[in-house]
Specification:
239 residues, alpha+beta, 5-stranded antiparallel sheet, 3 helices, elongated
Length: 239
């Protein structure tokens, strides 16, 4: 840390900025895909609810596909020469046989737009709620990361701009099975003579027990319980 009379300015590290951009970009792509495919699906469902025609089709094929979980599909013919396929639940799949009749709702103006079964207001509402849940899940990921990360950045900024530097000592070291990081507990004494026990994770130092090792500790007056060691100051930097 520089001398107290030196001009100081803090900015986020390049790794933090990259993480922000990566999470923001991924969230944007997921939201865009949800808007395209989810929006299209809801528009079609609403059109079928308003103007859909109900007919009887015939099951022509049934099969499963595995992608972490098993998905069940029915293929069918309806309204003359039109073919369709839709994912169904296990109960529907087990009860269905090739040649069985199947209810199809389609648009007379565009029979390619269709759904298995009847399309009711409850079905449209349920699908809307499902997409809403997906939307919330997509938004929860960046907010779940950004909010605590922002708080940690502000803390590190305060430490770098006006924090107190002192010495601490590790009194417990739990080395990971592969030795790639250490879960340590260290102790330091603040400017008022109060002793504090804190935890930290230190990477590297493979095969070395860090117990009794001295280390530099930084903290902000009044927030001694949120002290940081040098390797933890990884979100903000002095420029």
């Amino acid at each position: 840390m520089p001398e107290s009379n030196a001009p100081r300015k803090v900015q986020s590290t390049s790794s933090l900025r990259f993480t922000y951009y990566a999470i923001g970009g991924l969230s944007f792509v997921l939201l865009l895909l949800l808007a395209i495919f989810g929006g299209k699906d809801l528009l079609q469902l609403n059109a079928l609810l308003k103007d859909g025609k109900v007919t009887q089709g015939t099951i022509t094929f049934k099969h499963t596909a595995y992608n972490k979980t098993t998905n069940y599909y029915l293929s069918y013919a309806y309204n003359g020469s039109f073919q369709g396929q839709q994912e169904v639940d296990l109960s529907t799949y087990v009860k269905a046989d090739v040649g069985d009749p199947i209810t199809i709702t389609y648009l007379a103006t565009n029979p390619a737009i269709h759904r298995e079964g009847s399309v009711s207001g409850e079905r449209v509402t349920g699908q809307t709620l499902d997409y809403g849940a997906v939307l919330l899940a997509i938004l929860a990921v960046p907010f779940g990361f950004l909010v605590p990360t922002r708080k940690e950045f502000i803390l590190q900024k305060r430490i770098l701009l006006g924090g107190i530097q002192t010495e601490g000592q590790i009194f417990e070291d739990k080395i990971s099975p592969k030795g790639s990081f250490h879960r340590v507990r260290y102790r330091f004494t603040d400017n008022h003579g109060v002793c504090h026990d804190r935890k930290a994770v230190i990477s590297g130092q493979k095969g070395i027990n860090l117990k009794s090792t001295m280390l530099t500790v930084y903290y902000v007056e009044g927030k001694e319980d949120k002290s940081r060691i040098q390797s933890e100051l990884n979100l903000a930097k002095l420029i």
